[in-house]
Amino acid sequence: MNSMSVLFFLLFNFFGTSSASKDYLPRAKNVTWASHNFKTILRWGPKPFNYTHTVEFSKVGKDKQRNPHCIRSTETACDLTNELRDLKSSYMADVLTEPLVGQGMDLVELPYTQSKKFCPYSDTVIGKPDFRIKINENKTIVIYIRDQLTALYKDGRHLTLRDIFKEHLKYKIIYSRARSTGKTEMIVDQNKVELNELDKGESYCFSVAAYIPSRRGRKETGKWSPPKCSPAKEGSLIEEYGLWTIGVGSLVVMSLLIIAIIIVVTCCKRVCGYKPGKEKQVVSHV
């Protein structure tokens, strides 16, 4: 190979590599859905440098759409809560990598990374419900469960889980006697639950989770709330210690009191009965 051929080969490789490097755009990685109570965000990484990302989403098999806030973005998240309105449909999203505005590139197709399928109704994570415990006039424990608010609105009104799941929304309740390890689980349809079978006056601890049997597998049950315990009844002394114990204790106290009185009376008599002798007169003999 002569010197001219070697020079041509080196120049070709230099400019060819430089051009390829200039037109290279990295694909997004770890494209995942994050959804909690229907607040749905598409996330990916790493944070772009000298390029941007655009999100395209669609129902499976339908035309792609774009969120105006997620076009040529330098962020790594896109809020699609208000775009995924058909909650029982499955969606997919593409994260495209695009050059900066004004930066020309000779690309036939933009590189992109596709997400997995996502169905808001089935896949959003259901959070921990709030509840309170009340003891009614019959000394029965009553649980009041509050339906959680979602990130969705309709006609200006904040929607709850009950608005979305309707009759499919149920609740699981796990309870146990305070300081006991044995637990009982029950499933209820209502937000108010009276527990007539529990021992009155005893303290019980409860945890609650939303339960939607129309969802798949482990996603049927939402997150469990922190435990809350009912107050224990303050019993009388007889209920607390027993009649026999209180009787014996009373006798002991009375006996000690009588002994103390006898000792005091005896001491008083001795003090009162004491008379000093006459002083002897001393006669001085001159």
Describe this structure in words.
Interacts with HSPE; the interaction, inhibited by heparin, promotes the generation of activated factor X and activates coagulation in the presence of activated factor VII. GO terms for molecular function: cytokine receptor activity. It is a single-pass type I membrane protein. Belongs to the tissue factor family. Keywords: Blood coagulation, Disulfide bond, Glycoprotein, Hemostasis, Lipoprotein, Membrane, Palmitate, Signal, Transmembrane, Transmembrane helix. The N and C termini lie far apart (about 165 Å). Strands 4-3-6-7 form a 4-stranded antiparallel sheet, with no helix packed on it. The protein has 2 domains: about 5-115, Immunoglobulin-like (Sandwich), CATH 2.60.40; about 130-230, Immunoglobulin-like (Sandwich), CATH 2.60.40. The protein is built from 5 helices and 16 strands. A hairpin with a 6-residue loop joins strand 12 (about 170-175) and strand 13. It has helices at about 5-20, 120-125, 160-165, 235-240, 245-270; strands spanning about 30-35, 40-45, 50-60, 65, 75-80, 90-100, 110-115, 130-135, 140-145, 150-155, 155-160, 170-175, 185-190, 190-195, 205-210, 230. By secondary structure, the protein is α+β, with helices and mostly antiparallel strands. Helix content is about 20%, strand content about 30%. Mean pLDDT is about 85; it is low at about 5-20, about 235-240 and about 280-285.
